[in-house]
Design brief:
The protein has helices spanning about 1-20, 25-45, 50-75. It is flat. It has 3 helices and no strands. It has one domain (about 1-75). The mean pLDDT is about 90. The chain has about 80 residues and is mainly alpha-helical.
């Protein structure tokens, strides 16, 4: 049962990564990358590495997303 969870989370991570690259709007891509970081932190937790999971959630999903959003604030959004 646990192996199925790892396969499912891996599939979700691949899908989120592909969607982050595919979206043309950078804001949506940043939000998708934040979701990827959260799913990755859940995977680390399931692998019994809670300290790495907390660090990934804080840095990978939180801080990195904030830095990307600050950088996007200074640029123009492309909308179609």
């Amino acid at each position: 049962m646990e192996g199925l969870a790892h396969v499912g989370l891996s599939a979700i991570m691949v899908w989120l990564a592909l969607m982050a690259v595919r979206f043309r709007d950078l804001l949506i891509s940043v939000v998708t990358l934040a979701g990827l970081g959260l799913v990755l932190s859940l995977e680390f937790y399931l692998l019994r590495a809670p300290d790495v999971a907390i660090a990934e959630a804080a840095i990978g999903a939180g801080l990195t997303t904030a830095i990307y959003l600050i950088a996007l604030r200074g640029s123009r959004r492309e909308e179609e």
